Amino acid sequence: MTGTTSFSGYDRASLTPTVVHIGPGNFHRAHQAVYCDTVLRTGARSGAVWAISLRSAKVRDALACAGFVYHLVERAQAPDGESQGVRPIGALLGVDVAAQNVERALARLADPAVTVATVTVTEHGYCAVHPAGPLDPTRAEVAHDLRHPGSPRSLPGLLLEALVRRRAAGVAPFTVASCDNLPSNGLAASRVVLDLAECRDPRLAEWVRSNVAFPSSMVDRMVPATTDDELAGLRRAGITDHLPVVTEPFSQWVLEDVFPAGRPQWERAGVELVSDVGLHEQAKLRILNAAHSALAYWGLLAGHRLIWQAVADPALLAATRDLLAEILPTVAAPPGWDLPAYAEQVLRRFANSALPYTTAKVAEDGSQKLPVRIVPTVRALLATGAPATHSAQLLAAWAACLAGPRAGDLAVRDAVMRLAAHGRSAPTSGGPANGTTMPPDFAVDRLMNLPGFFDPADPREQDFVKQVRRRAATLWISDIRIALALRDGNPADSPGPTYIVGPRAC
Questions:
Q1: Do 12-274 and 278-485 agree at the fold level?
Q2: Domains of the chain by residue range
Q3: Do 333 and 296 contact (CB within 8 A), yes or no?
């Protein structure tokens, strides 16, 4: 092994990868790879990982110089300041980049030793029309895969072609375990793979349906981007690592135990194996992820760079607690869970000032995240006639971050934003084109009509969209703290809004 990162946890050279992971970003390396590392430290022979990056070579190139060993840094608040634990992780044996050599990536997935393919490619990576929805055939990579199935560029294309090759070779299919923040993420993965298979050959789709398992899972760990300060701190401690991961001590993985071809003994590392993960997913998405998004958008509008700073803001913390109080009645508790206690634990985790999680990062891709984090809550509240006031405020804040007077400065990235600014298309990341500000009604209507949001033909949902418009109008002219304090979203005795059109004056 080259580089300066040493490892003595087990004999890595004697291991054959049994897990292929697609999407080896920070989260995977702080979560699934750590569980695999823990299992291998017990003497198990199954659980070593080989990763595939669909496009970027950054992770491979940074890890290769140390033989793909890296450090996990766990940081927490302590009575006397901060505590920190550092541990080398050796479960990841290598990384292939599909965009550079798709045959190598396919060969890795087709290896008979591989029994599980895990996935973390974010909601956008499934190439669906909307999160957990059907395959989007207009996506460039999907259109390519339909024309050239043997050299895929998309996640569903890569999985499907690897399964086709295993079938042709008489090798049992691997199990696909999604670890992304999607409701019924196993079903979300199976849907896009099956849709692509139907396009290729309905008989192929039937084979996949009958032979390939797609268990769902719930994963939870906060993993911010690693900063230069973190790298410098490790160097001062005598550790040179080009790509460590920094995270919190808390980690959770709840997994449906459906693995016909076998799996690592993840239960040795604390993975909760269940028959149905649905309630766990719902609780995490609606409580933790929704609160995270709220603190990100409210925090950005309040001028906070980090999530813990937003939690420390009394107005934002109170608003988040109000949002959680609105959400909790819509959530069924998983066995043994105390939902109010879980919500408070979530806020304590967000308040960890040792973890530099930026509001801008959490705010990214709201068009993919919010349909699964807050829209189901809104629908559940509307169905019972309960108010969804704080949910409306969250969505209005998202609209303000993307299209309001400060959108150009905030530059929130959104992979599928399709707003039109006065007849011109807005960029696919950042705020409106040329520094313009859209009227709030226009912005809200465009955003709330994106796939996965609200039904234009449903009167109750459109009444809710009107609430979002009113609250957005306040955010266009008022401080976020003032807006959060208003009950109906309308400032009393305030002048009408002034919209900026065209480049801002200096």
A1: no
A2: 12-274, 278-485
A3: no
Render the burial of 28-43: b for 16+ CB within 10 Å, e for the rest. Answer: bbbbbbbbbbbbbeee
- Residue 435 confidence (pLDDT) above 60: no
Token pair, residue 208, equals: 């996949």
Average pLDDT, the chain: 90
CA distances from 236 to 182, 345, 356 (A): 39, 33, 19
Question: Which strands sit side by side in the sheet containing 252-256, from one edge to the other?
Answer: 217-220, 252-256, 272-274
> In terms of DSSP H, where are the helices of 88-201?
102-110, 140-147, 155-169, 185-200
Rounded to whole angstroms, how far apart are CA atoms 398 and 366? 7
Q: Under CATH, to which class is 12-274 assigned?
A: alpha beta
Q: Distance between CA atoms of 67 and 81, rounded to whole angstroms?
A: 34
- In one-letter notation, the amino acid at residue 20 is V
Helix %, strand %, coil % for the chain, to 5?
45, 15, 40
pLDDT, tens digit, 9 for 90 and up, residues 20-59: 999 999 999 999 999 999 999 999 999 999 999 999 999 9
Report the alpha-carbon distance of residue 35 to residue 266 in Å, rounded.
Answer: 7
Per-residue pLDDT reduced to its tens digit, 267-315: 999 999 999 999 999 999 999 999 999 999 999 999 999 999 999 999 9
Is CATH 1.10.1040.10 the right assignment for the domain spanning 278-485?
yes
* Beta bridge partner(s), residue 53: 97
In residues, how long is the chain? 506
Q: How far apart are CA 503 and CA 467, in angstroms?
A: 29
Q: Give the residue, 322 or 428, on which the prediction is more confident.
A: 322
pLDDT at position 79, please? 65
Residue 500: pLDDT over 80? no
Q: Considering only 130-144, 185-199, 426-440, 470-484, which range has the smallest mean pLDDT?
A: 426-440
Calpha distance 226→72 (Å, rounded): 11
Q: How far apart are the C-alpha atoms of 317 and 315, rounded to whole Å?
A: 6
Nearest-CA neighbor of 321 among 300, 301, 354, 350?
A: 350
Q: What is the C-alpha separation between 469 and 396, in angstroms, rounded?
A: 7
Task: Please answer whether residues 337 and 284 qualify as being in contact, where contact means their C-beta atoms are separated by less than 8 angstroms.
Answer: no
Q: How far apart are CA 395 and CA 58, in angstroms?
A: 34
Give the amino acid at 24. P
Angle value at C-alpha 123, between 306 and 18, nearest 5 degrees:
105
One-letter amino acid identity for 213?
Answer: A
